[in-house]
Write a structure and sequence with these properties.
By secondary structure, the protein is α+β, with helices and mostly antiparallel strands. The protein has one domain. The protein is built from eight helices and six strands, in the order H-E-H-H-E-H-H-E-E-E-E-H-H-H.
């Protein structure tokens, strides 16, 4: 992924940037929030930090704000368990009370790769910690692939500025434990 090209296209799309995160800042964020940035996302954030609406300002956001964004996939899943009869057969019979059902979902999500917010409700899994993980659009349990990788995601999200006439997935999509199963269901 050509990071400078991506930054240029994102600036054209109206995205604002702050100076990139330092290795120490990256390490502190990862330690504080118990995940690792995959190399492609880390490279972008170290080159230039997107700070526009929807993006996580990893330098200025409070720990609580970051935690809220990290917890969004689970919280929105719990919403669908309570309000939209979402339940996975693999979890066994659904408990009668919501708190017990939420605990089953919490354990399932805790055992899955952590989803790192990229922009708005688009997330990149932290595992495997290598370039090329897909970007998921996560809105409650409406979970789809929004890019086969980070670059593909940027081309889809900001298609006009990347010269992509329409949403398209390019390349093979890496399967991600748990999350890919939700896409497939």
């Amino acid at each position: 992924m050509d990071i400078e090209y991506c930054k240029d296209r994102l600036i054209a799309a109206g995205v604002s940037f702050a100076p990139g995160l330092s290795p120490e800042e990256i390490s502190a964020i990862e330690k504080a929030h118990d995940f690792r940035f995959p190399p492609d996302l880390k490279g972008l954030l170290m080159h230039a930090l997107p700070v526009s609406k929807g993006w996580v300002d990893w330098r200025q956001a409070s720990s609580a704000e970051i935690t809220d964004r990290l917890n969004w996939p689970l919280e929105s899943m719990c919403f669908d368990i309570e309000h939209n009869v979402f339940w996975l057969d693999a979890w066994g019979p659904k408990p009668a009370d919501n708190q017990s059902a939420f605990e089953v979902a919490r354990k399932a999500v805790a055992g899955a790769p952590r989803l790192i917010p990229v922009c708005s409700h688009r997330y990149l899994p932290d595992s495997p910690c290598e370039p090329g993980n897909p970007v998921f659009s996560v809105y409650q349990t409406d979970i789809i692939y929004y890019g086969a990788n980070l670059f593909d995601y940027l081309c889809n999200e900001f298609s006009y500025y990347f010269g992509r006439p329409e949403y398209a997935m390019t390349g093979e999509i890496r399967r991600i434990e748990f999350w890919s199963d939700l896409v497939d269901r």
